[in-house]
Design brief:
Layout (H helix, E strand, L loop, with lengths): L10 H5 L3 H12 L1 H7 L23 E5 L1 H4 L2 H8 L6 E4 L3 E3 L8 E6 L6 H4 L6 H14 L3 E6 L2 E3 L3 H5 L6 E3 L18 H13 L10 H8 L6 H14 L2 E3 L2 E3 L6 E7 L4 E6 L7 E3 L2 E3 L3 E3 L5 E6 L1 H18 L3 E4 L11 E4 L4 E3 L2 H4 L7 H10 L6 E4 L10 H8 L3 E2 L10 H17 L3 E2 L1 E4 L15 H13 L4 E4 L33 H23 L3 E4 L5 E7 L3 E8 L7 E4 L4 E9 L5 E5 L2 E5 L6 E8 L3
Length: 627
Amino acid sequence: MAKISYINLNPKEALELSFDASLDALKRLFGKEPVEKAFDISKNYPSVLSESKYSDWYKTAKIVGINPRITETYWGIVKYAMTLAEEWIHVMPLWQTGDRGSLYVQNSWSLSDEFLDPDLTVRGYDSADKQLKLVVNILHAMGKIVGFDALPHTDSFSQIVFMNPSYFEWIKLDKTRTHQLEPPLVDYNSIHKEVEDKIITYLSAPANLYELGENERFNILFPKDCDEEKRRIELMDYIRGEGFETIPVTEHYPMRPVKFKKLDLQMNCAVFDVKDKSADSKIIGCITPYRWYKIDSNGYIEKDKPNEEVWNYFLNKINEFQKNFNFDFLRADMAHNQIAYSYNHKNAAENECDFSPDSKNVFVPKEMWAVLKETICSEKPYFRVLAESFYNNYYIDGITDMINKDVDIVLGNMNYKFLNEEYINWLDDFLNPFRKHFRFAPCVCIFSTDCDLEINNIYYESQKANECRYFMAIFMNLPSYMAIGYELRSLSPVSDCEYSNLYIKKQERKFQFGTNVRTFDFIVKMRNLYSQWRDIIAKQPMNFLRADEKKIIVWYYRMKGKTLLFLCSLDLSNSFAEFNLGFNITDAGFLFNEDNSVEFSIEKGSISFSNLSIGTCLILELESQVD
């Protein structure tokens, strides 16, 4: 693996660097020749993984998520990445958004000009495509592994929807626009043809518009001399006025059938509901899913009847995007949602469907994410998938679902857990049953943009807990995930502008980093140590131990004659812990110990600690007899 190099600047300071200062820092860190080579965007700079023989590299990936609205420009992504010892960079969506402005509400396959960097523009990188190609090249020259977000949905009336009405699911309202028309008055699989005819008539377009190639179709729908966003809204208002709506994304059981409820004239949107909706059911009204399967007369999908044309369109688009910009992995957005719903008919005569969780815990013949990964891996075998999903029964059996989807890393929800006994149990499970029985790797999620809300401050109000989260995540040989902003996050943010979740959507005010330099100082110390031991953590077996009836854990890596041992105490009531390591220790010494009151003693195969306090993090080097 490549040497880890980075600058010890906090994110706020790094993003304030001038272009010339950041370029000079890059050349000092990584060499003039590699950096200048990366500036040639006619070629893709090779990823460190392209010649890697280490097949399980993803199982210990240290991932950092970057919101481009916080870095503000494409080049800002590079400035921030220079502060990281972590190798994996997940860049949140960069596509054009709709009028709502959310990064996850995709409008088109074009990259957004919102993040254009003026310093790059004057140097000839005068388009979003050129700037992103340069950024990925530079990140690869830095030894980083780079990923993007793949979204299985678009804005409910995106350019993509108007370009391809048949790829989405529509409903039709009656003339009063108060009720949804049901079969046999409509066929759910052919409403899109009426939408196409309406668009053709409205624009006086050729009758064969939707048989033309994509570029020709786009030039008719969104001609060069038009304001694309104004035209999109014009088409949306017209089609909605004619009584057509796309259905929204739903999650949690039950997810279908999706039914029209009413028009919200104040919000200018349609409101939907789900039949027999549970308290946990969720409807995301601003986005619409692709019509992956045929729809039966009751509004359920027919998982044995995939829309091959839709699959091919999406797979080709994502594969083309990955190939063009040379990404190494993708984040499967909303992978906790099943695309291939698996259900049993309760009553064949009435065609009712059982959408209970038990009916979904089965293997399905064809999951979109698995097919997408297979498609990309046919040319890039090391490509991997990070799934936004969970391990528990999140209306489905998470483990079975992840096997179906053939993902590599599961993001999980450790960032919504207190550091208590349950947290330690999860770590124990991740390192033992999960690792032994499943190919995918569970992730120790420290912090994500999704969770950065005032309501979740309860998880981040303790300085020591925040340090422990990072300590465990960076030094365990499990994947970890941390979003930009954690390094300086205040224990009690005083402004809405300090919550990165707000910046998924466009904001007039700039993001404000927190003022907690203590967290950043701790992270810098840990990164300096991680950069020395990265290969040990990635390649050596990890042993995990816990003190009986105490929330104190130890894990260690054995090498020839030496052992790296890590301790983290989450226990408020116990100051003593003893661990039997099972091999003879001849000497030991602290490599990291901020709590000078802690003492240890060794006796053959055991090591005991005293004067521990909650939040204590220690690292020792042990000398032992060679087995």
